[in-house]
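Example 3.2
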Amino acid sequence: MKLHVEAISEQVPAGRHALVISDGAARHSEKVNCHNVTPLKLPPYSPELNPVEQIWQWLKQKMSSNRTYKNYKAIEDACCEAWNRFVEDAERITGMCSRKWATIKES
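Structure, written as tokens:
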């Protein structure tokens, strides 16, 4: 996580600031000290605040529920097919991952 946040910090333009939002996973809790990046940990049990949770839910509901698989390769193929189908629809991604309250207004 530290290396990831440091990489983000390097990409933040001068005079700007980045907010890195993460869930409460232990691997996301490492302390990082970057002057232009602020970490924000989501409260526990708040999947509605984490867009990726809705992606997992969509993938499970639309692509993998109520199925059995012959072997590991079949599971892997089904996951790849589901992901590729998901990313084909930019409007779906925007709708599921955008939040009206989380927009940046250019000054």
